[in-house]
């Protein structure tokens, strides 16, 4: 089916019913009003007492059918959704709603409603994928009198094909730092130690910066540290990374510093002096990197 034919078939559903003679599952009632106001933090006195009204924004709440749906749901709406499914628009997301209020709803009001398919858009391309916006209009009544109108819009779409996430850049491994990366692959953070003066150094270097000796051995970091400094990366974006994220200069308990990511806590909660603990994260079948968890986020068994 071509786009023009599909669009013509979709447009034919405009004006047809989506629900007929629907009834609210419960009358307007004080407990639901109270729960709503508590959830919203709304202390308006108009919603309490003997002359209470329901918050206007609860308009849709009185028409919702719950998990079982409504018996009044009309066949044309089901046919429209099925047609979109067959066209490959198998995913759905709610996009927005509009409400108009004509009269207040009060406890014990019995709500009835009718819903019509108001519009179906031409094919649209979004970041989620390509599909059609479907707008329904629900007229809510009490004793036949219009109380309000609720417009609800969804996007029925075919999910966009997403490229596989690019791999992180590989570290440059050479004869001077190969031992460090070999240790990381075994979940060990190795620090060079000068064989002549015992000065520790990280990152690895071919000779001691304190005495110049080329001889060295290693000690394994215990894993405890604190954030000495940090930045939050927002821009520029790189395909293999998901900004924003925190990059920290971590001071290890041994006295040396290392640049790495702070993970396990929100990026905007990272602070200078925050205690962190060494962890190792596998990013793909080849790449393991040392990272640091905020201590508060570490649970039992964290390395």
In DSSP terms (H or I, runs of 4 or more residues), the helix count works out at 4
Mean of residue pLDDT values: 90
Using the coordinates above, name the CATH class of the largest domain.
Alpha Beta
Described by the principal axes of the CA atoms, the overall outline is elongated
Q: Which residues form runs of ≥5 with pLDDT under 50?
A: 297-303
> How helical, in percent, are the residues?
10-25%
Range of strand content:
35-45%
**N-C termini distance:** 56 Å
CATH architecture of the largest domain: Roll
CATH fold field value of the largest domain: Thiol Ester Dehydrase, Chain A
Give the total of beta strands: 14
Domain module count: 2
Describe this structure in words.
It is a single chain. This protein has 303 residues and is mainly β. It has 2 domains: 3-159, Thiol Ester Dehydrase, Chain A (Roll); 178-297, no CATH class. It is built from 4 helices and 14 strands. It has helices at residues 3-11, 30-40, 75-86, 178-185, and strands spanning 17-23, 91-101, 111-120, 124-125, 129-142, 145-159, 190-194, 200-201, 216-220, 224-233, 245-252, 257-263, 275-282, 288-294. The strands form 3 sheets. Strands 1, 2, 3, 4, 5 and 6 form a 6-stranded antiparallel sheet that branches. The protein is elongated, with a radius of gyration of 31 Å. It starts with a helix and ends in a 9-residue tail after the last strand.
């Amino acid at each position: 089916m071509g786009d023009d034919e599909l669009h013509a078939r979709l447009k034919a559903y405009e004006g047809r019913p989506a629900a007929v003679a629907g009834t609210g599952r419960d009358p307007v009632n004080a407990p639901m009003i109270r729960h709503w106001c508590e959830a919203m933090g709304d202390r308006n006195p108009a919603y309490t007492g003997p002359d209470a009204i329901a918050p206007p924004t609860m308009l849709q709440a009185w028409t919702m059918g719950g998990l079982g749906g409504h018996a009044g749901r009309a066949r044309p709406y089901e046919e429209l959704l099925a047609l979109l499914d067959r066209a490959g628009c198998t995913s759905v997301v709610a996009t927005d709603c509009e409400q108009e209020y004509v009269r207040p709803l009060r406890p014990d009001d019995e709500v009835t409603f009718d819903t019509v398919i108001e519009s179906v858009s031409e094919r649209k391309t979004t970041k989620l994928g390509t599909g059609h916006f479907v707008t329904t209009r629900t007229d809510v009544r009490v004793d036949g009198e219009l109380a309000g109108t609720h417009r609800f819009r969804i996007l029925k779409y075919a999910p966009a094909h997403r490229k596989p996430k690019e791999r992180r850049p590989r570290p440059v491994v050479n004869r001077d730092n190969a031992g460090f990366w070999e240790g990381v692959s075994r979940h060990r953070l190795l620090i060079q130690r000068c064989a002549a003066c015992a000065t520790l150094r990280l990152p690895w270097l071919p000779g001691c910066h304190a005495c110049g000796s080329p001889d060295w051995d290693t000690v394994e970091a215990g894993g405890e540290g604190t954030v000495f400094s940090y930045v939050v990366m927002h821009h520029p974006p790189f395909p293999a990374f998901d900004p924003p994220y925190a990059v920290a200069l971590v001071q290890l308990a041994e006295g040396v510093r290392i640049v790495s990511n702070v993970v396990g806590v929100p990026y905007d909660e990272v602070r200078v002096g925050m205690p962190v603990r060494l962890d190792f994260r596998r990013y793909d079948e080849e790449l393991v990197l040392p990272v640091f968890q905020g201590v508060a986020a570490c649970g039992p068994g964290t390395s």
